[in-house]
Design brief:
heterodimer; A: Rossmann fold; OB fold (Dihydrolipoamide Acetyltransferase, E2P); 2 domains; 6-stranded mixed beta sheet; 5-stranded antiparallel beta sheet; B: 263 residues
C-alpha cells in the first residue's frame, strides 16, 4: 500500500496565553520528505506531536490519507515515530525493541523475528540483535530507533530532531542514510529540525516555522535563495537585509526599490568576480575572521549598518590581507539580489 | 576512611574494638534468644542447662499460635498487595505533577512513618470503631497499609523518577495502549524496586505490634500481639522459639533478595 498524504487544516493549539500553533495548514504529498524547520518555540515539535496524537489541537483537522485522525488515539494511528532521544526500551535487547511493535500486532513469534532482523539489516545493524541497548553507541541507537519505527510498515513516519545528539560527521552520514531509507520505503515523512543545513540536505520541501505559523513552504533552493519573509532570510544562514536606497546600481542593472536580501556568500570584492552587473556598496572593515573555506567579513556601511560578507579563501584576499578600518567595495550581481515581500525596513 | 587517622597501631586497635563492640551490642540481644529457645527448662534462662526442641513443638502444636501465624502471614501478604500499587500510583503522581504538589503528596504519604505509633493506633482505634471495623482483618489491614505506604514510597520513588516517560509515548506510537505500555515497558524496568517495596511492606506488617494490639482481636489476633499477651501472662521459652524462627525467616528473605540483586 502506497504511503498516504497528510493534510492539516487550520490546526490550532494554545497553551495558556501562548499560541503554539496558529491555524496551521499544510498538505504533505504522498511519499514526500517534508521538514519543519524553525527555532525552539516556533511550534515545529508541537505540530509534529499533534500529527502523532500526543497533542490534541483545540481546532482544526488532521487527515492521514482520507481519514480524519484528529481524535484518534496515538496507538491507533499507525505512525512510526523516531524520538529525539530515541526512547529505546533499555530492558530489552536490540531485537526485542524492534520486535515489540510486531508482537503487539500479534504476529507469530517466528515471523516477527524474521521481519525485525530484516529491518535491522536495512539499518546496517546485522549482528547486533542480541546486544543490550546500553552497549550501543549513539549512532547505533539511532539506527535501532529507525528500524523500530519502520518495522511494522507504518503509514507515515515522523522524526523529532533525531540527529541532534550525534556528532557532526555521524550526523551528516545519518542524514543520507535516513533519506535513502525514506526513499526506498517511499514513506510520507515529516522531519523536525532547527538545523537549516540538515533541512536543505534532506528535504523535498521545507516548511520554515516561526511563532506557530509556517512562514514559507518551498523546495530547499527557493527557501534558501528566495526567502519570502525577513524571518526566513535571517534564519537560512547569513543574509543581509537592507533598504534599496543604500545600494548603488551598476551598469545595466535595473533600478531597485523596497527591501533587499543579499546572501553573505553572494558578495565579491571585485566587480568582475560578482558574476554580472548589479550593485555596489562601500564600507569599512569592522571585523574579520578566517573560517577555512571562506573569509568572514563585517563591513560597516552608511548609517551604522553592518554588512556580512563571506569571501572564498585561496584567492586574492589571502595575499592582499585585511586590516580593520580598511575601505572596501562589495559587489553583488542582480540575480543574487532578492526583493522581500512587503514589510517596511525598521 | 581509616586513612584519616594517624598511622598508629593503637589508634587502629581502638577503632576496630569500638566497631566490634557496637556490632556486638546490636546483634547479641537478637542472638541470645537462640540458645534460650533450645532450653529444656520451663523458664527463660541463659545459658540453658539442658537442650530440647520442646518449645518448637509447643509452638507448632498450639492452635492459638498457629492461628496467629496464619493471620500475620495473610495480613502481611495483603498489606504488600495493597500498599505497593497505592505507593506506585502516588509516586507516578508525584513525578508527573512535580513541584510543590509533589512535595505535598510526599509529605502526606510519609507522615505515618514519623507519627508515634501509639498515636496512630489510638486514632485508628476510634476511626475503626466508628466504621464498625474493630477486630476485623480489614481494620488491621488498613492500619498496616497506612504504615507500609511510606516504606514503599521511599523505595519506589527514585525508580519512578529515573523512568523516561518518552518510552511510554514510544510504546503508544508502536501500538500499545496505556495499560500495555505500563505493564510491558514501565514495570519491567523497576522490578527490583517493586520487589523491594513489596518485601519491605510485607516485613513491616509482619513486625507491627502496636496497631495490632489496639485493633486486632479474637480470630484476627496477629502473632506479635499474641507474643506480647503471652509475655505478660506467662513467661515460657515458646516466645524464644518463635523469635528464633522469626529472625531466621527475615534473615533468609533478606539474604535471598541480596543474592538476587547482585548480578
Amino acid at each position: 500500500m502506497a504511503s498516504p498524504r497528510i493534510a492539516l487544516e487550520r490546526v490550532r493549539k494554545v497553551y495558556g496565553r501562548h499560541v503554539a500553533l496558529d491555524d496551521v495548514s499544510v498538505d504533505v504529498r504522498p511519499g514526500e520528505f517534508l521538514t519543519l524547520l524553525g527555532p525552539s518555540g516556533s511550534g515545529k515539535t508541537t505540530l509534529l506531536m499533534a500529527i502523532a496524537g500526543f497533542v490534541r489541537p483545540e481546532a482544526g483537522l488532521i487527515r492521514i490519507g482520507e481519514a480524519d485522525v484528529t481524535r484518534l488515539p496515538v496507538n491507533k494511528r499507525d505512525i512510526g515515530i523516531v524520538f529525539q532521544n530515541y526512547a529505546l526500551f533499555p530492558h530489552m535487547s536490540v531485537l526485542g525493541n524492534v520486535e515489540y511493535p510486531l508482537l503487539l500486532r500479534r504476529l507469530p513469534r517466528a515471523e516477527a523475528r524474521e521481519r525485525a532482523r530484516a529491518a535491522l539489516a536495512r539499518t546496517q545493524l546485522e549482528g547486533y540483535e542480541a546486544r543490550d541497548i546500553a552497549a550501543l553507541s549513539g549512532g547505533q541507537r539511532q539506527r535501532v530507533a529507525l528500524a523500530r519505527a519502520v518495522v511494522f510498515e507504518p503509514r507515515v513516519l515522523l522524526m523529532d530532531e533525531p540527529l541532534s545528539a550525534l556528532d557532526k560527521n555521524l550526523r551528516e552520514q545519518m542524514q543520507f542514510e535516513i533519506r535513502k531509507l525514506q526513499q526506498d520505503l517511499a514513506i510520507t515523512t515529516i522531519y523536525v529540525t532547527h538545523d537549516q543545513r540538515e533541512a536543505l540536505t534532506m528535504s523535498d520541501r521545507i516548511a520554515v516555522m516561526n511563532g506557530g505559523r509556517i512562514e514559507q513552504l518551498d523546495a530547499p533552493q527557493p527557501v534558501y535563495q528566495r526567502p519570502r519573509t525577513r524571518f526566513v532570510a535571517n534564519f537560512m544562514g547569513e543574509s543581509n537585509i537592507m533598504p534599496a536606497a543604500l545600494v548603488e546600481p551598476l551598469g545595466s542593472a535595473p533600478p531597485l526599490d523596497g527591501t533587499l536580501v543579499i546572501r553573505a556568500e553572494n558578495f565579491a570584492l571585485e566587480r568582475d568576480a560578482a558574476g554580472g552587473d548589479g550593485i555596489a556598496i562601500k564600507g569599512r572593515v569592522a571585523a574579520y575572521a578566517f573560517r577555512g573555506e571562506t573569509w568572514h567579513l563585517r563591513l560597516k556601511v552608511e548609517g551604522e549598518r553592518e554588512l556580512l560578507l563571506s569571501i572564498p579563501s585561496g584567492k586574492s584576499l589571502d595575499q592582499a590581507g585585511i586590516t580593520i578600518g580598511q575601505q572596501l567595495t562589495a559587489y553583488a550581481a542582480a540575480r543574487h539580489i532578492h526583493r522581500l515581500d512587503g514589510g517596511p525596513e525598521p | 576512611m581509616l586513612d584519616a587517622y594517624p598511622e598508629s597501631r593503637l589508634a587502629h586497635a581502638l577503632l576496630w574494638s569500638f566497631g566490634a563492640l557496637v556490632l556486638a551490642f546490636l546483634i547479641l540481644p537478637t542472638l541470645i534468644v537462640v540458645p534460650i529457645s533450645f532450653s529444656g527448662s520451663d523458664m527463660l534462662e541463659f545459658p540453658p542447662r539442658s537442650l530440647s526442641l520442646r518449645w518448637y513443638a509447643s509452638f507448632f502444636g498450639s492452635a492459638d499460635w498457629m492461628a496467629a501465624l496464619r493471620t500475620s502471614l495473610i495480613l502481611a501478604g495483603l498489606t504488600a498487595i495493597v500498599s505497593v500499587p497505592a505507593a506506585f500510583l502516588a509516586c507516578v503522581a508525584m513525578d508527573r505533577l512535580g513541584g510543590r504538589l509533589a512535595s505535598g503528596i510526599y509529605t502526606f504519604a510519609v507522615i505515618p512513618s514519623v507519627v508515634p505509633g501509639i498515636l496512630l493506633a489510638i486514632g485508628l482505634f476510634f476511626v475503626l470503631a466508628k466504621l464498625r471495623l474493630l477486630g476485623t482483618l480489614g481494620g488491621v489491614l488498613l492500619g498496616h497499609v497506612v504504615l507500609a505506604i511510606p516504606v514503599a514510597v521511599v523505595v519506589l520513588y527514585p525508580a519512578v523518577r529515573r523512568f523516561d516517560w518518552v518510552q511510554l509515548q514510544a510504546a503508544r506510537s508502536l501500538g500499545a495502549g496505556w495499560g500495555g505500555g505500563i505493564v510491558g515497558i514501565m514495570l519491567p524496568q523497576m522490578v527490583l524496586s517493586l520487589v523491594s517495596a513489596a518485601l519491605m511492606a510485607f516485613l513491616s506488617s509482619l513486625d507491627e505490634a502496636v496497631i495490632s494490639i489496639f485493633v486486632s482481636s479474637g480470630a484476627n489476633t496477629t502473632l506479635p500481639k499474641l507474643m506480647f499477651i503471652s509475655l505478660r501472662d506467662q513467661i515460657d521459652p515458646t516466645i524464644a522459639a518463635i523469635s528464633t524462627l522469626w529472625t531466621g525467616l527475615v534473615v533468609a528473605v533478606v539474604l535471598l533478595f541480596a543474592a538476587r540483586q547482585r548480578p
